[in-house]
Write a structure and sequence with these properties.
The chain is of the alpha/beta class and 346 residues long. It contains eleven helices and eleven strands. The structure holds 6-O-phosphono-beta-D-fructofuranose (F6P). The site of 6-O-phosphono-beta-D-fructofuranose has 12 residues, from loops. One of its GO terms (cellular component) is 6-phosphofructokinase complex.
């Protein structure tokens, strides 16, 4: 293994708060070891098309608290066609990169895993507001998203109560309902619907009616965008658009639910789709700290010559796991946690 001189870093997939904190930590730690760092622009796109920029202590100054990612991101999949893959491998050599740090969720880390199988020295850093990567207790971005959802539910509570309304809040969460469950518990939701447990619209309406018969004049229902009604095997969406990894553009289940609830219960119902507000803006202190710990640890792995690994948080310690782990299995919502949420349903 030749000694490391230059590290490439990229951010792929959906952005999330804390990416800049991670980039800053990578650059600061790398520079302390005398490594040069280049930022690969817009995820794997930058390596296919040769778009990079040097990252120095100076260029990462002042970005810790800033949302988004200074090097951009995209959902580019280099394994979609052989030509892109060959361009990526050629550019990797051309830029003289000795090791790559790939900051991403299931798709970006999936590409990293495949490249690592091809012999590219790679270390992964887990990020996603969805918190659905196995092997790590938390991903950064999640805490900020939950804070935003909690704040939104708090605000919806007061207007729901004033108008005697049902409020349906659609939150992100494609395969898993971590944001819905955490945000729903924190915000005191009356029903939380998640992708892991298909829902019965009749039961949801019965629960709401019973609650109102008990004297409550409003209800808050949190639904993850990937939640499905029983006996329906596909997502409820308002679009057929699909990304390069084959994922359909979600969004629509909230409106479906709102319409059905109003029709079946007769209660005035409004729908709020939080959408990308959950991914934007400044990261919470927790996300800044986690992203910083991951960034530093990723460079330390490179220094130790440990590749094909992903940094992870387990029992509040930073560890490293095989990069295939988050790729092979999603981390779904802990059933015990969902049982706790259910104590407050209705
Ligand atoms: O990957 C995280 C996520 O925010 C999902 O929860 C959501 O389904 C998706 O990204 C939305 O992606 P896009 O930014 O492409 O609309």
């Amino acid at each position: 293994m030749k000694p490391v001189k230059k590290i490439g870093v990229l951010t792929g997939g959906g952005d999330c708060p804390g990416l800049n904190a991670a980039i800053r930590a990578v650059v600061r730690r790398a520079n302390s070891y005398g490594y040069e760092v280049i930022g690969i622009k817009r995820g794997w796109h930058g390596l296919i098309y040769g778009e990079t920029e040097p990252l120095t202590n100076f260029s990462v100054s002042g970005i810790l608290h800033v949302g988004g990612t200074i090097i951009g991101t995209s959902r580019t999949n280099p394994f979609k066609n052989e030509e892109d893959l060959q361009r990526l491998l050629a550019n990797y050599k051309k830029f003289g990169i000795d090791a790559l740090i790939s900051i991403g969720g299931e798709d970006t880390l999936g590409v990293a895993y495949k490249l690592s199988e091809k012999g590219i020295p790679i270390v992964g850093i887990p990020k996603t507001i969805d918190n659905d990567l196995s092997g790590t207790d938390f991903t950064f971005g999640f805490d900020t998203a939950v804070t935003i959802v909690t704040d939104a539910i708090d605000r919806l509570h007061s207007t729901a109560e004033s108008h005697d309304r049902i409020m349906v809040v659609e939150v992100m969460g494609r395969h898993t309902g971590w944001i819905a469950t955490f945000g729903g518990i924190a915000g005191g939701a009356d029903i939380i619907l998640i992708p892991e447990v298909s829902f019965d619209i009749g039961e949801v309406c019965t629960m709401i009616k019973k609650r109102h018969e008990r004297g409550k004049n409003f209800s808050i229902i949190v639904v993850a965008e990937g939640a499905k009604p029983k006996d329906v095997d596909k997502y409820i969406t308002s679009s057929n658009q699909v990304d390069e990894f084959g994922h359909i553009k979600l969004g629509g289940v909230g409106n479906f639910l709102g319409t059905e609830i109003e029709k079946r219960t007769g209660y005035d119902t409004r729908v709020t789709v939080l959408g990308h507000i959950q991914r934007g803006g400044s990261p919470t202190a927790n996300d800044r700290v986690l992203a910083t710990r991951f960034g530093v640890a990723a460079v330390d792995l490179i220094k130790e010559g440990k590749f094909g690994r992903m940094v992870a948080l387990q029992c509040n310690k930073i560890v490293d796991i095989d990069i295939s782990e988050p790729v092979k299995k999603l981390k779904t919502v802990d059933p015990d946690l969902y049982e706790i949420a259910k104590v407050f349903f209705g």
